[in-house]
Amino acid sequence: MIEIQWGVPITLYPAHNGVAERFSTIEKARHWLRRNWPLADDARQAALEKIESAMDCMSPVKEARSAFVAAALSAGFAPDRAS
What's one Pfam family here (predicted)? Predict the structure, then answer.
């Protein structure tokens, strides 16, 4: 399987104690949204939809990345400044 890189990796820092996680591919972001995300809200759903659309070449990867960052903020993560 070819992984889709989305530019500069995004590192998410948990709001409370925990290990930071680095996301450099759209596949890893989708996996985390599906399996490890702490909050099932509209931002998470929007990010999943944008990511799956980008994986199907129906929308830009940049939109998926932005939606992922929005979902991270909604879930209480602090993305690194490069995101």
Answer: DUF982
**Residue 7 DSSP one-character state:** E
- Coil, strand, or helix at residue 81? coil
Structure tokens at 55: 């994986």
DSSP summary character for residue 23 = E
- Interacting residues of 38 by C-beta distance below 8 A, sequence separation 6+: 75, 76
Strand order in the sheet with 78-79: 21-25, 5-13, 78-79
- Give the count of domains, the chain: 1
- Reported as a pLDDT band with limits 50, 70 and 90, residue 29 is very high
Q: Which domain holds residue 72?
A: 5-79
